[in-house]
Specification:
Number of domains: 1
Radius of gyration: 12 Å
CATH topology: Ubiquitin-like (UB roll)
Strand content: 15-25%
CATH architecture: Roll
Structural class: alpha+beta
Strand order of the largest sheet: 2-1-5-3-4
Length: about 110
């Protein structure tokens, strides 16, 4: 089970054991992590699961697809390390992943 650390905009951390193959969004919803609303349920259609991926992990992720890039255009406070957590599938290689939520998602 990969561990994922979610950091709220105020600095509060939540470390959870996630299921292999689940998305970062799925794990957040399962563990009631504040700041990940996931209004569309993971269909890459709302950007309410926007996260900032810790710089150390960016090279471990697949590139964002066209659909995800398009949805990020609707997100607030987009940065170069912005991703939609519904599009990040958890693998053993992502054990220890750290993501932060934007202040607009509190």
């Amino acid at each position: 089970m990969p561990k994922v650390t979610y950091i709220e905009h105020n600095g509060k951390e939540h470390v959870v054991d996630a299921t292999l193959g689940a998305s970062v969004m799925d794990a957040a919803v399962k563990h009631n992590i504040p700041g990940i609303d996931a209004d569309c349920g993971g269909a890459c259609a709302c950007a309410t699961c926007h996260v900032y991926v810790d710089e150390a992990w960016l090279g471990q992720l697949d590139k964002a697809g066209a659909m995800e890039q398009s949805m990020l255009d609707f997100a607030n406070e987009v940065e170069t390390n912005s991703r939609l957590s519904c599009q990040i599938k958890l693998t053993a290689a992502l054990d220890g992943l750290v993501v932060r939520m934007p202040a607009s998602q509190h």
